[in-house]
Design a protein that fits this description.
By secondary structure, this protein is an alpha+beta fold. The protein contains seven helices and four strands; from the N terminus they run ααβαβαββααα. A four-stranded mixed beta sheet has the order 1-2-4-3.
């Protein structure tokens, strides 16, 4: 399901213009991690991080937790813990972490606001990308973050049917 979402929604709607080329050249690692508890998920995150660091083939990794039925708030707390772990390991300047969740909601927005769809995925998901890859495309972390707000405008133009086709878990 993550592959389909990536192809149809992220690439298909051009929500991230830097996804298509690495995806088509096999540079995006898609992992569906087992486990449905916080300790399992933390261990799986660290194991995936270590394996990702040790390889050179992939530029970015999507770590999906399809079995983990966790609220958005709790998953967001988990993603912040993962960011803290990156900092503790001295990797905070090496990686950018982005959290995705079926019920993603930006602070201060109503759940129904389409801007929330920018970070909505079929399962709880952590996207880790190397900051150096942002540097190679001459984009700052702030510019990458602001791109998601520009995508909200694209999503506003979708019909209700298109929203349901791309984000059926939100319906």
């Amino acid at each position: 399901m993550i592959k389909s979402w990536l192809e149809k929604t992220i690439i298909g709607l051009d929500l991230c213009p830097f996804t298509s080329k690495p995806y088509l050249t096999g540079k995006i690692l898609l992992e569906e991690l087992p486990g449905n508890t916080l300790p399992d998920s933390q261990n799986n995150f660290l194991d995936s991080l270590n394996a990702f660091q040790a390889q050179k083939k992939f530029e970015t990794i999507l770590m999906a937790y399809p079995q983990w039925k966790i609220s958005f708030k709790d998953f967001y707390d988990f993603s912040e813990d993962c960011e803290d772990q990156l900092a503790e390991l001295g990797l905070g300047d090496e990686f950018q972490l982005v959290a995705f969740h079926p019920k993603f909601c930006f602070e201060g927005l109503e759940f129904s606001n389409r801007a929330n769809l920018v970070n909505s995925s079929p399962y709880p998901l952590i996207h880790l990308l190397r900051i150096i890859d942002l540097d190679l495309i001459n984009m700052s972390v702030k510019e990458a973050e602001s791109m998601s707000f520009g995508n909200a405008k694209k999503l506003e133009l979708l019909s209700e049917l298109e929203v349901l086709e791309h984000f059926p878990w939100r319906g």
